Amino acid sequence: MRLVVLGAGISGHTAASFARRWLPDPHEVVVISPKATYNWIPSNIWVAVGVLDARKVVFELAPIYEREGIQFHQASAEVIHPQGDLEQDQPFVEVLYTGQGRQGQRGRIPYDYLINATGPRLNFGATPGLGPDGGHSWSVCTETHATDTAAALKERIARMRKGERQTFLVGTGHGQCTCQGAAFEYAFNLEFELRHHGVRDKADLVWIANEYELGDFGMNGMHIKHGGYITPSSVFTASLFAERGIRWINRAHLRDVQQDRVQYELLDGTLGEQGFDFAMLLPPFSGVGLRAVDREGLDITDTVFAGNGFMKVDADYTQRPFEQWRAADWPRTYQNPTFRNLFAVGIAFAPPHAISRPRRSPQGTPISPTPPRTGMPSSAIGKAVAHSVVDMMLGLSEVPTHNASMAAMGAACVASAGANPLTGTAASITVFPIVPDFERYPEYGRDPKHTFGEIGLAGHWIKIALHHMFLHQARMGPGWHLIPE
Amino acid sequence: MPQQAPPASPTAPPTAPPTAPPTAPPTAPPEIQTAQVTVPTAWTRHLRVNLLWQLWRFIVINLKMLRIISMSHRGG
């Protein structure tokens, strides 16, 4: 039998690696990814402030897959045919090759089981002028973006050395962004580097984001245990911003990014403007635009995918008000309800709803974070789904055997706040569970015993260790499978 | 005889002049925002980069994270 994995990001690569390890030889594992390289995205932050070369966060996938017996197609998946077509009964994926000497060619790759791990489309187009490609802001989303951002920052630092004042704007570029954590890391690393270069006094740092309060992180915030207190993350995070002299603008949707300013709308309906010399603003995410068609060629994209382009899985998608959201709404097996051999992991699965309370401005603009599905949960989900699929392929079960609900899973997150082995710091945060469960934990929705946060040099050491450990794991070096997700 | 203005139609609501959304006040300067939050003392900032203390915290945080990972692997 053949397992096809769409995407070679953290979740897809984890799923493919473990599936290959657990499946005996006659079974095939195939990875389809439009990029030739793997990118350890969390370390892009350090690339984007100029302390790490982009070559340290990427590696070529083809040699590793060849060594491990995983077939690799450098192509973008375009259409899923879950029932095959009139010519062939076996399901297949239509792809457009982007490399391996076959650029522009189309192909059909049959599958018995499919794991969709395409990740997101970086939807810079959602806000006019957003993004580095034709827009006016920088990004850390890919290693190329991060390298360009570092070059732009270097130029701004040179100007400050000559005495010019510069305004740096960091945050989210749309009212429905996620990944506030990455923007937080960039803001703090930027501030640290400006101090390191001796130009902090020439810089005004401004944070702008769609969070209702600082420290929401798309998780409706959290209550963390530290120093004898249970503290809301808004208080913990605001303290870090204040300590560094970073101004903040919360509850903001960016309407337009111009060459030297952004126009924004706040949740209370007021409009504002913020000037900048340098802006790093993250885009909102959407599905990558995969389509699905049935055996007769009729479009069934709406059956397989949610309206935002992410794949439907075993979540409860019934629309309910925030007060009625339950932990049980969240998927456990990540199996598509219509086609039982289809799964979606990482950012590619459609969440049942947000985690943070949804809010709209009086003009009707949604201004609230969408739920994060990156980092530790995405690799844990990838591994659990690989386990289920392997069991099904081996005939051990007809239904998924492993669960990985974000409402029953914790996360350990280390947010870098400055990269130096002696003077750097990082915020180490653990939450359990990721999605609040108010039935189990009525007071805070999470277990206060295991929801913890502190900032210090130890966090930076852990961040360095994670960088090397997870790149070793991704390269499938000796003992890679022993490293916990 | 002065001409009277025609009475307004009873069905038509009074027309409000188009209004632009209000403008957000400029962001509070750092010192104002700082006044609303807790900030660390010099001793706390020192501990954050004190090698001995951070070595201890490195062990503690790693244990906490391993605990979360083991709890998460129980599924759900």
Polypeptide structure, described:
The complex is a heterodimer of chains A (485) and B (76). Chain A has 485 residues and is α/β, with parallel strands linked by helices. Chain A is built from nine helices and 24 strands. Chain A has helices at 10-22, 44-48, 61-68, 143-161, 180-196, 233-244, 301-304, 376-393, 457-474; strands at 2-6, 28-33, 37-39, 58-60, 71-81, 92-97, 106-110, 113-116, 121-122, 166-172, 203-208, 223-226, 229-232, 247-249, 252-257, 261-266, 271-275, 278-282, 285-286, 291-292, 342-344, 411-416, 426-431, 452-456. In chain A, the strands form seven sheets. In chain A, strands 1, 2, 5, 6, 7, 8, 20 and 21 form an eight-stranded mixed beta sheet that branches. In chain A, strand 10, helix 5 (180-196) and strand 11 (203-208) form a beta-alpha-beta unit. In chain A, helix 1 (10-22) runs parallel beside helix 8 (376-393). The model of chain A has no long low-confidence stretch (mean pLDDT 96). Chain B is mainly α and 76 residues long. Helix content of chain B is 46%, strand content 0%. Chain B contains three helices and no strands. Chain B has helices at 30-34, 42-49, 51-72. The longest helix of chain B is centred in the last third of the chain and has 22 residues, at 51-72. The termini of chain B are far apart. The model of chain B is unreliable at 1-14 (pLDDT under 50). At the A-B interface, helix 6, strand 14, strand 16, strand 17 and helix 8 of A face helix 1, helix 2 and helix 3 of B.
Which features characterize this protein?
heterodimer, A: 485 residues, alpha/beta, four-stranded parallel sheet, 9 helices, 24% strand, globular, B: 76 residues, mainly alpha, flat, disordered N terminus
